[in-house]
Design goal:
The protein is built from five helices and four strands. It is an alpha/beta fold.
Amino acid sequence: MKELPLEIPQRKCSIAIVAAEFNHFVVQQLVEGALDALQRNGVAESNITLAWVPGAFELPLAADVLAAGGRHDAVIALGAVIRGGTPHFDYVAGECSRGIAQVGLKHGLPAIFGVLTTDNVDQALERAGSGSGNKGFDTAVAALQMIALLDRARAS
């Protein structure tokens, strides 16, 4: 059996982050966590592109355009969709996740879904760094691990 364990790439990487402006007070913390993780793992600030979009629904289009440019090894989508009193939450969260998944499959690169989908603001803030860790940090690590995995899989 050949096993491909999780690793961090040992090469220069270029990462695109697309972030939703809506619920900025949460998303900014996710962005800061992602940037921290990337820089701690050797990604130079000059190799990171940060693009802001109005909301989570717009993330897939921006991710697709950045992935299509061929300049990035991975795209990370960050946002926060917080449930309200209408079904709007379900439409936005569902289409956003589906769109990000399609970007990865279409372009053959990691498209990481870092959009919080929570029932309330407290849950969102907890996942953005005030409690159980920062999911932005986690998504950046996942992007790097996927880059390394794809590098090894394509080399064999």
